[in-house]
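Lab notebook: predicted structure, single chain.

Context: the supervisor wants predicted structures on file for every construct in the current expression panel, including those that have not yet been purified. This is the next one on the list. No modifications to the sequence; it matches the entry in the shared construct table.
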Amino acid sequence: MTIIKHKEQRVAVLIDVQNMYYSGKKIYRAKVNFGEILKTATASRKLIRAIAYVVKTEKGLERPFFEALEHLGIETKVKELQEYVGGLKKADWDVGITIDAIRLASLVDVIVLVSGDGDFIPLVEYLKNQGRQVEVIAFGKSASSRLKEMADDFLDLSESPTKYLIKKRV
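Prediction complete. Output recorded below exactly as produced.
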């Protein structure tokens, strides 16, 4: 299926940073180039809002990364890392991303979800039923196959890893 992308479309880009970070790290042992992803996601259309959902650790070493995202024009929403008895650590943004997508749906034509998390399948169904175009960007190797099927368009970052990853400096 070919989807239409035109310059008058209003776009919101929602980035599940943890999902993308761990996929890039696990598959390629590299960092994700969120600036290039944002450029691809907007595709010369009208960017209404770009939000990165990030996790803050106790040490706060990720602050320069958050600032880099903001410098790219990506708003950051920060959640504290929760540590549970027994050492389990968790910081799940699924509900926050879902709520923002539903809130933004009336203001945009397209929602670009930058995540391969299958938990977003009901959100994609809902947004499409509301008449929104839903595009998903993720690493195909780690993305939910059902999420890829449900989206109006799926961009597999694995097809151009050098474009969407940051090489380590030697």
